[in-house]
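Q&A log
Question type: sequence-to-structure
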Amino acid sequence: MTSILQRLNLASSLRALKHRNFRLFFWGQLISLIGVWMQSTALQWLVYRITASQTSLGLVTFINFLPVLLLSLYMGVIVDRLPRRRLLILTQSWFTVLALVLSGLTWLGLIQYWQILVLSFLLGIGNALDMPARQAFVVEMVDDDRNDLMNAISLNSILFNIARIIGPAIGGAIVAALGEAPAFAINGLSYLAVILALLLMRVSPPKMAAVDGGRQEGVQGGFQYIFGERHIFALILLVAGFSMIGFGALTLVPVFAKDILQIGVAGYGQLLSSQGVGALIGGVLLVLFGDHFHKGKLLFFSRIILGPSIIGLSLSRAPWLSMALMALLGYSFITQLVITNTLIQTIVPDDLRGRVLSTYTWALGGFYPLGSLMIGALGDQIGAPGAALFSGVGCLLLFGVALKVFPGLHQFN
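Response status: OK
Response body:
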């Protein structure tokens, strides 16, 4: 019992918050991410309401992340060469404008599907820069203290998933009562909290390591390093695989809520919130016990439960069971991503951080929309349950292949 209490030392578990810059970012992000999840919930519902097409849902996700697939590798070079705080202020301002435009078009009754695709693509351009810049900026916010790095990443995941619980529930309620436009407007205003936090930070010029004379510059240098580091290559490759085959099944959630479980937009928000609860539990466990867990074994466990959870969701016709399975999915997703991110950031040298993390975000944000498009199109052909079953079985097969090809990947301590 004493040992458990020692591990639950609250000050130690929240130690990343001792850094002023991270503390500012943490609270600014909390406000902003609630708005982001409100908009995501409202947008998916709007798309399915006006198109009644699962392929259309998948296409919006694909278009949103297409710039990540095309541009994020090059954005990594920008992240390694320009001040990351300024880049984040730029991206957050861009997101504000797009959200308010979406709200205005919806409020005036002018919104059309093609406009949603255009705005989603423009949002994706911002994300292609924002994602690697945000990941690389974490080290700067904890003053280059590698001992606090996993704690900061885990606290970020908790923040993300608190917002994932609150945002969809509020978003679903607002859409049910007032329509989609107010949810988009609130999201646009919420970005101001992050911009203010970034402006209030005191940031020193990042300390960049000297470039290895044998290392190429630009995108080629990032690839040279990744292909030369087997563990980094495996981590990024599997993020791409699970993002496409497993995470892509999330595009079917509005279909399950509306047509399979018949629980409406409020129930849809509850499904997404349930996923957030599971992810929050995973994040809290990593914050409290992250320094004591065997990272490789935890990564193994989080991957092995992914396929069965999606298969269970495909077969479930009970809302409570579907919500429980969504919670398991949330736990699996966030645990994989936090540990993968931490391992990459621990291994990679400073002068390649932006480029390697841009490859990580390319694998995560680029292959997820490909999977969404594929699973959405498959859902239109064989139904959402069949498409989800395909996704779950695919995750099990990918897990088996990973064990065979990369047997040492789960040995990290």
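Response note: The chain has one domain: 20-201+218-411.
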